[in-house]
Design goal:
TraX, membrane, globular, mainly alpha, transmembrane, 270 residues, Conjugal transfer protein TraX
Length: 270
Amino acid sequence: MLQKGLNSFQIKIIALVLMVFDHIHYIFTGVFQVPLWFTMLGRLSAPLFIFATANGMRYTRNPVKYLMRLWFGFVFMNFGNDLINQYFPLPNGGIVINNIFSTLFVICLIIFSIQRISVCRKENRPFLQYIFLMLVPVFSSIIIFMTMSNPSLFFMVRGIMFFVPSLLFCEGGIILVVLGVGLYLCNQDKKKIGIFYLVLSILVFAMGYNPEIGVESMFLDNIQWCMVFALPFMLLYNKQKGRGMKYFFYAFYPAHIYIFTILANIISKY
């Protein structure tokens, strides 16, 4: 029987392929001439992974384990990025700061808190602790922002950034967190998802406006607007999980970034 639409696994595979294009552009620019459309395709990747993750939090039987996997991924990549930047610097002068686990963790932490607050309200139980839990990424952002310029607090700030994901300093920042929580709150209603995602994409598009350059700046200076083309894939979602292989995605993400970075560093020396 022919399957209708796309299941979660297929959406994640599409996101993974597009992500590879994006990282090829970022890592190998300066080694090869990599066309801009590589990273334009990559703008679809994070929204699709976020879409799949928000749905994952809806269906998972153990949201705490789900959160812990993302947290371990976040911490692992913080140390991994530190090592890779120290021993295999990018030839183009950039640094590896990729850590989508931080963004996914913040999104899922907020979703988990919303879920628990809803349950507590139905059962007439206190839920203040979940409001506090939801605000942890906000508190960590405030602490980091207020202390990062103080050299004497360097290790404290670094410790917080390595172990406590923050709203302001996660990959993609507030916009991607709003995207994830908003997609969850749309409750898989395709009309709501379409309206919400288009409005957010238009907002991102408008944020790229530079008055010194003009309207052209919204198309070229901030290509994050290309994220709008992820919407058709979301609307094709058939609410099916598909194949498992969850650990494949957790492993592939850091592995391909570090392998690409090492290759770029080695090739640039010849």
